Amino acid sequence: MANATKGSCGPVTLFIEILNKYLYFFEKGNPQITISAIQGLIELIAAEMQGSNASSDPAAYAFLSSTMQYIQFQKQKGGAMGEKYEPIKV
């Protein structure tokens, strides 16, 4: 069963969904969601996208692209939220 998802992008999509939840709680000020946790998840997703067929899945790529655009938007927004997002490398 563990190999059932091998080659599919289910796990990558799940990681992107988790990243989005992390960002939500990060914005709400949850101290357990740190910059390094978010950065680590972004790096994991990037590695998974390169090492799997996920990059050929338009839905997973679009989902990730949308999430990265959101992070960029928050950085450019300025103010307290912009400062909060500034250390995140996308």
UniProtKB/TrEMBL annotation:
- Topology in the lipid bilayer: Peripheral membrane protein
Work out whether the entry's keyword set contains Transport: yes
Q: Give the location in the cell.
A: Membrane
Q: Name one Pfam family in it.
A: Vps35
Q: Name one GO cellular component term.
A: late endosome
Ordered alphabetically, the record's keywords are: Membrane, Protein transport, Transport
Query: An example of a Gene Ontology BP annotation on this entry?
Result: intracellular protein transport
Q: Which PANTHER family does the record associate with it?
A: VACUOLAR PROTEIN SORTING-ASSOCIATED PROTEIN 35, VACUOLAR SORTING PROTEIN 35
Family according to the record? Belongs to the VPS35 family.
Please give the name of this protein.
Vacuolar protein sorting-associated protein 35B
**Which gene holds the coding sequence for this protein?**
VPS35B
